[in-house]
Design a protein that fits this description.
Distance between the termini: 31 Å
Number of strands: 10
Strand order of the largest sheet: 6-4-5-1-10
Radius of gyration: 19 Å
Shape: globular
Largest sheet: 5 strands, mixed
Strand content: 15-25%
């Protein structure tokens, strides 16, 4: 993509962010269509994505990372206004389903020597970025600065999972990978009148969970709608952790 085309199509937004000169080489791996079933999520398919897809994908990643930073700002603002500090910060996608109760056990998430907790699957050479629990002291290191890394670390990563790992490792954030039964939050998609978790190769499910993808061609029942409403808003218990002391990053 030429600099003039970037200026024409993304114009004011790029000027505001002062990133125009760096767009050419930003995250080249993010612009190659990849095979998600490949264990490392890093083997390019034969076809390249179009320029329109390239623009859309880069814009999506920038908005995601700016959203993380904005949410961190809002959490800090709330802390200042209320004169308290959160214990944990949870990153969850707005299309995620909490398919089993999420237990915030103090022994795991507060007393352990680790700083951040992610699922031990769908990481493709990095860290799974769909759901994270982070100790408040490491909110800044975990959720800020990714846009600059995206634009200055070209060639160092092939997907956002690898970019997240690159960033957290460089900031010495200690990450613990946990199984899906401990972090039972699964990426999901609306498909017509159904709402379904994604296949296992894209995000893992807790053992014994019935993948509703098998029923995706069927109309959504009122019972399923109710369960989606209930589980989309995370249901969790927190032995040893004050539930009001948890911040959320969407």
């Amino acid at each position: 993509m030429t600099p003039s085309l970037v200026r024409t199509r993304l114009g004011a937004a790029l000027k505001m962010m002062h990133i125009m000169p760096k767009m050419e080489s930003a995250g080249e791996g993010l612009f190659t269509r990849v095979n998600q079933s490949h264990p490392d999520y890093a083997k390019p398919l034969a076809s390249e994505i179009t320029w329109q897809e390239r623009e859309s994908r880069l814009g999506m990643h920038i908005r995601q990372f700016l959203g993380w930073s904005t949410c961190a700002d809002l959490i800090e603002r709330a802390e200042l206004e209320e004169s308290f500090l959160y214990d944990l910060v949870i990153r969850i996608r707005d299309n995620a389903l909490v398919v089993q109760p999420l237990v915030l056990a103090q022994a795991i998430f507060v007393e352990s020597p680790y700083d951040a907790f992610v699922k031990d699957c769908a990481e493709w050479g990095g860290y799974n970025d769909k759901f994270m629990i982070v100790k408040r002291a490491h909110m800044h290191s975990t959720f800020r600065g990714h846009v600059s890394s995206l634009l200055t670390s070209a060639g160092s990563f092939r997907n956002t999972e690898q970019l997240l790992k690159l960033k957290l490792d460089s900031r010495q954030v200690r990450v613990l990978r946990l199984p899906a039964n401990v972090l039972p939050v699964v990426d999901a998609r609306c498909r017509g009148t159904s709402y379904c978790v994604v296949p296992d190769n894209k995000d893992c499910h807790p053992p014994g969970y019935i993948n509703k993808d098998t029923n995706c061609s069927s109309p959504m029942t009122e019972g399923l709608r109710a369960s989606v409403r209930a589980y989309t808003v995370p249901q969790f218990s927190s032995p040893g952790v004050n539930a009001t002391a948890v911040g959320w990053i969407l």
